[in-house]
Write a structure and sequence with these properties.
Layout (H helix, E strand, L loop, with lengths): L2 H4 L5 E4 L3 H12 L4 E4 L8 H4 L20 H6 L9 H14 L6 E2 L4 E7 L4 E6 L4 E4 L1 E4 L21 E4 L14 E5 L3 H10 L5 E6 L15 H9 L1 H10 L18 H14 L3 H4 L9 H18 L3 H6 L17 H4 L5 E5 L5 E4 L3 E4 L2 E4 L2 E4 L8 H4 L2 E3 L6 H4 L18 E3 L10 H22 L3 E4 L1 H16 L6 H4 L22 H13 L5 E4 L7
Parallel strand pairs: 1-2, 1-7, 2-3, 4-16, 7-17, 8-15, 9-10, 9-15, 10-11
Antiparallel strand pairs: 4-5, 5-6, 12-13, 13-14, 18-19
Bound molecules: ligand NA7.
Length: 543
C-alpha cells in the first residue's frame, strides 16, 4: 500500500480513472491538495479499459482526443490514426498517469458504493466495496457517460453453453473468434464496430438488429507527418477551433442551410462528407440538419440511397435503413458495415419482425426458431449518463438521496453541481454537453479546480447551486433539445433520453446547446464570482 492508499482523510476524493477522473486528479494535486482516487477497473483508462472489443475506436479526431493543458506535453504525443483505436487511447491515458505520477493516488479494482455528506464535518464520507471509509471536503466524479452496461432482460441467458461476451466488459485476454459461429446483439456504435471488424474472420456472423442505425463511414487513415507537423507548429489554432465548435470539433461551424441549397450542390457536398466519414456529414455540410426535419429528411434520403447502393439485396437494404432522423440517437461510424451484409456468411435477424424469445443452451430462440452459435456478443448498450450515479448511494443535505432528487429527471446546474449536494462536483456529468469528451472534461475540471481554490481561499465550507439556477438550466436544456432532432429520440430508443432502458424516467440527460455555449456560461459564472451558487462559511447554518 502506498501512503496515499492508507490515508482515510484527504482534501479531495475523485471517482473515475478515465479522461475526466485522471485530469481532475492531476489538477487538484497540482494545487497542493491531498487526493484519493478510485476506480472499479483494475487499471487506469475508464471506458477504454472496459471496451476492448474488436474494432473499438473513437470517432473523435486524434488532435482533439487528448489534453491540451501543456503545449510540450501535447506535442510529444503522436496517435497513429486520425481516429485512434482503443489500445492507443488506453496507452495515452497510461502515459498521462505515469508522466504526472498519478498511479500512486489511485486505488483500483475498488468500487465506491456510497457517498454521504456529513453535515457535522462538512465532508463527504465515502465507502468502498472493500469496506474502506475515506472522507474529504470535496468529492469529484468522473464516472463516464457510458459506463453502466445493461444486460438484456431476456430469459435463459445463463443457460447458453457457448462463449458469452459483452463489448462493455471485454476480456483482457485474447478472444479467438476465428472459425466460430458468432451472434452480435445490438447495432449501436459498439455493435457496428465489432461487426465490421470481425466479418470475414469468423465462420458465420448473425446480426440481431432491433433498431436500424445510420452508420457513417469512419474515413479512418493514418495521420501524415505533414499534418502532424502542421498541428505541432500551431496547436493553439486547433484548441481555439475546438473551444468555438458546438461539439468540440476542430472545424469551423457551418452556417449554410440545406433548404437554401440547390439539390445538385447538396448532393455533391453530402458525397464529399460521406467520403470523409465520421461526423463530417453532420458538422461539415449544413446547419439546419439538426434543427429542421425537412432538411434532415434530405440527408436521410441521401443516406438511404447510399445504403441501397451498398447492399445488393434491396429487401435487406430496406431492413438496414432506419426510419428515425439522423441525430435522433447517437449516430455511429464503421468502415464497410453495409457491405458486410453482401456476404453469404453474414445474416441479419430483424428483431422487429422476429423478436428474441429466449437464450438457449445452443444459442438464441426468436419467434421464428432457434439459431445456434459458438459465441454470443452482447453490444446492448448502457444505462447511460445517470446510470453510473444512481448505482452509487449518494446522500446530500438532510440525508436526501440523489436517486430521489433525480427521480423524475436529472437536475443540475451546468452539469457541474447539484442543489442540496454541496461540494459534489461532476466532470462530464448529467446535463453537461454532449460533445467530444476530452476538451469538455478538461474545461470542466479546470472550472471545478478554480471553484475549490476559491472556496479554500475564502474559507467557504459549502458550495452548491441555487434551486432557481438548477431549474433554469434544466428548462433551458429541455428547450434546446426540443428544437433539435433529439426530440425524435424516444421513438428511436435513444440513450440521450433514457429511452433504451425499460422503466427509466425519460428526460434529456445531456446538453445539446453546444460545448462552446456551455463553456462560455461556465466562464461567465466564475468571472462574476458564482452568482448562481450559495456559498457558506463555517458558522452559517443557512444552507
Ligand atoms: P447503444 O448505442 O446503446 O447500442 C445498443 C444496441 O443494443 C442498440 O442497437 C439496441 O437496440 C440494442 N439492444 C439493447 N437491448 C437489446 C435487446 N434486449 N435486444 C436486442 N437489442 C438490444 O450502445 P453502444 O455500446 O453501441 O454505444 C454506446 C456509446 O458508446 C456510443 O454511442 C458512443 O458514444 C460510445 P435499440 O436501438 O435500443 O433498439
Amino acid at each position: 500500500m502506498t501512503a496515499a492508499e492508507q490515508s482515510a482523510t484527504v482534501d479531495a476524493i475523485v471517482i473515475g480513472a478515465g479522461f475526466a477522473g485522471i485530469y481532475a486528479t492531476l489538477r487538484l494535486t497540482a494545487m497542493g491538495l491531498t487526493v484519493r482516487s478510485f476506480d472499479a477497473a483494475d487499471d487506469i483508462g475508464g471506458v477504454w479499459t472496459w471496451n476492448r472489443y474488436p474494432g473499438a475506436r473513437t470517432d473523435s479526431l486524434h488532435e482533439t482526443y487528448c489534453f491540451t493543458f501543456d503545449r510540450d506535453f501535447y506535442n510529444e504525443w503522436a496517435y497513429t490514426d486520425i481516429h485512434p483505436d482503443q489500445s492507443e487511447v488506453l496507452r495515452y491515458l497510461h502515459h498521462v498517469a505515469e508522466r504526472f505520477d498519478l498511479r500512486k493516488l489511485y486505488t483500483l479494482s475498488t468500487r465506491v458504493e456510497s457517498a454521504t455528506f456529513n453535515e457535522a464535518t462538512d465532508r463527504w464520507d465515502v465507502r468502498t466495496d472493500s469496506g474502506e471509509q475515506v472522507s474529504a471536503p470535496y468529492l469529484v466524479t468522473g464516472l463516464g457517460l457510458v459506463s453502466a452496461p445493461i444486460i438484456p432482460d431476456v430469459p435463459g441467458l445463463e443457460s447458453f453453453g457457448g462463449e458469452l461476451y459483452m463489448t462493455a466488459n471485454w476480456p483482457h485476454d485474447e478472444v479467438s473468434l476465428a472459425g466460430k459461429r458468432v451472434a452480435v446483439i445490438g447495432t449501436g456504435s459498439s455493435g457496428v464496430q465489432v461487426i465490421s471488424t470481425i466479418v470475414g474472420s469468423v465462420a458465420d456472423l448473425t446480426v440481431f438488429q432491433r433498431t436500424a442505425n445510420w452508420v457513417a463511414r469512419t474515413g479512418n487513415r493514418p495521420v501524415s507527418d505533414e499534418e502532424r507537423q502542421g498541428i505541432r507548429q500551431h496547436p493553439e489554432q486547433v484548441w481555439d477551433r475546438v473551444r468555438q465548435h458546438p461539439a468540440g470539433w476542430p472545424w469551423e461551424p457551418v452556417k449554410r442551410m440545406a433548404l437554401d441549397t440547390p439539390a445538385e450542390e447538396r448532393e455533391r457536398l453530402f458525397e464529399e462528407a460521406w467520403e470523409e466519414g465520421g461526423f463530417a456529414l453532420l458538422y461539415k455540410t449544413y446547419a439546419d440538419l439538426s434543427t429542421d426535419k425537412a432538411a434532415n429528411d434530405i440527408l436521410c434520403d441521401f443516406f438511404a440511397r447510399k445504403i441501397a447502393s451498398l447492399v445488393d439485396d434491396p429487401v435487406l437494404a430496406k431492413k438496414l435503413t432506419p426510419n428515425h432522423p439522423y441525430g435522433a440517437k447517437r449516430p455511429p461510424a464503421a468502415e464497410g458495415y453495409y457491405e458486410a451484409f453482401n456476404r453469404s456468411d453474414v445474416h441479419l435477424v430483424n428483431l422487429t419482425e422476429t423478436p428474441i424469445v429466449s437464450f438457449t443452451d445452443k444459442g438464441i430462440r426468436t419467434s421464428a426458431g432457434e439459431h445456434e452459435f459458438d459465441v454470443i456478443i452482447l453490444a446492448t448498450g448502457f444505462d447511460a449518463i445517470t446510470g453510473a450515479f444512481t448505482r452509487i448511494d449518494i446522500r446530500g443535505l438532510a440525508g436526501e438521496r440523489l436517486n430521489d432528487h433525480w427521480a423524475e429527471a436529472p437536475r443540475t446546474y451546468l452539469g457541474l453541481m447539484i442543489t442540496g449536494f454541496p461540494n459534489l462536483f461532476m466532470v462530464a456529468g448529467p446535463q453537461s454537453p454532449f460533445a467530444n469528451l476530452p476538451p469538455g472534461a478538461q474545461g470542466q475540471a479546470d472550472w471545478i479546480a478554480n471553484a475549490i481554490a476559491h472556496m479554500r481561499s475564502d474559507g467557504i465550507v459549502r458550495m452548491q447551486p441555487s434551486m432557481d439556477a438548477e431549474i433554469e438550466w434544466t428548462a433551458h436544456l429541455d428547450e434546446i433539445a426540443e428544437g433539435l432532432m433529439t426530440r425524435y429520440g424516444e421513438a428511436a430508443g435513444s440513450w440521450f433520453t433514457g429511452a433504451n432502458v425499460p422503466g427509466k424516467p425519460r428526460a434529456y440527460n445531456v446538453y445539446f446547446g453546444g460545448h462552446n455555449v456551455h463553456a462560455d456560461r461556465c466562464d461567465a459564472e466564475q468571472a462574476a464570482d458564482y452568482p448562481n451558487f450559495k456559498m457558506s462559511q463555517p458558522v452559517s447554518a443557512d444552507v
